[in-house]
Amino acid sequence: QVQLQESGPGLVKPSGTLSLTCAVSGGSIGSSSWWTWVRQPPGKGLEWIGEIHHSGSINYNVSLESRLTISVDKSKNHFSLQLTSVTAADTALYYCARRRPRVGATGGAYMDVWGKGTTVSVSS
Amino acid sequence: DIVMTQTPLSSPVTLGQPASISCRSSQSLVHSDGNTYLSWLQQRPGQPPRLLIYKISNRFSGVPDRFSGSGAGTHFTLKISRVEAEDVGVYYCMQGTQSPWTFGQGTKVEIK
């Protein structure tokens, strides 16, 4: 079955760039699914960051769009997140997840596979 | 953005007793295709979220049948028929009808 694993630096300096990668195993990133980033600030709830389809289509949360880049590398079966000009407010547990499309045999627009998450702290 | 509001925020429950969580959306979650994309996730302590229910009432693979979802339009409910110790955690509703996808603030289920 599909598994996801986040990786990247655990500490980023203020005004720097947060870069994370999510490796997809047990399945192809070229499926009909959307590959998604979600974050969870300490002690708080879940915030959808954005997502990408293997075709290159992208959806970003407008609140982060000006600082955000999500990309996909089909040859490496992984997708990535870059968030620029970070502040302490970007400190969070970052998850990658698979979001099923609305339609199709597995349709439903739900997030059914999640990585374990990686903690990113923004601090000098 | 569609705002998802859950109540209660905390639910102390006796083992073996039922629990119920409400989720309301700021606008209808009925998509133009006629489906309602409301799902429920469980986050056990120290774990990533886990999908329980999708499209209001469909239990995901491997989810015990003590979990059930219901509702329509803007009001949805997750019920646990008999709470077990492994059900402790935070439960989130999530809408997949209109981007940006949004989550409720979470309801903490704990044992009395």
Note the main attributes of this structure.
heterodimer, A: 124 residues, mainly beta, 4-stranded antiparallel β-sheet, B: 112 residues, 7-stranded mixed β-sheet, 11 strands
Tell me about this structure.
The complex is a heterodimer of chains A (124) and B (112). Chain A is mostly beta strands and 124 residues long. Chain A has strands at residues 3-7, 11-12, 18-25, 34-40, 47-53, 58-60, 68-73, 78-83, 92-99, 111-114, 118-122. In chain A, strands 2, 4, 5, 6, 9, 10 and 11 form a seven-stranded mixed sheet that branches. In chain A, strands 1-3-8-7 form a four-stranded antiparallel sheet, with no helix packed on it. The N and C termini of chain A lie far apart (39 Å). Chain B is mostly beta strands. Chain B has strands spanning 4-7, 10-13, 19-25, 38-43, 50-54, 58-59, 67-72, 75-80, 89-95, 102-103, 107-111. In chain B, the strands form two sheets. In chain B, strands 2, 4, 5, 6, 9, 10 and 11 form a seven-stranded mixed sheet that branches. A four-stranded antiparallel sheet of chain B has the order 1-3-8-7, with no helix packed on it. The mean pLDDT of chain B is 97. Classes of the chains: A mainly beta (124), B mainly beta (112). The A-B interface holds A 38, 45-48, 59, 61-63, 95, 97, 99, 102-103, 108-112, 114-117 and B 31, 33, 35, 37, 39, 41, 48-51, 54-55, 58, 60, 92, 94, 96-97, 99-106.
* SSE pattern of chain B, N- to C-terminal: EEEEEEEEEEE
Can you tell me the residue ranges of chain A where pLDDT is under 50 for at least 5 consecutive residues?
Answer: none
Q: What is the helix content of chain A?
A: under 10%
Beta strands of chain A, count = 11
Count up the helices of chain B: 0
Question: Compute the gyration radius of chain A: what is it?
Answer: 14 Å
> How large a portion of the residues of chain A is in β-strands, by DSSP E?
over 45%
Shape estimate of chain A: globular
Query: How much of the sequence of chain B is in beta strands?
Result: over 45%
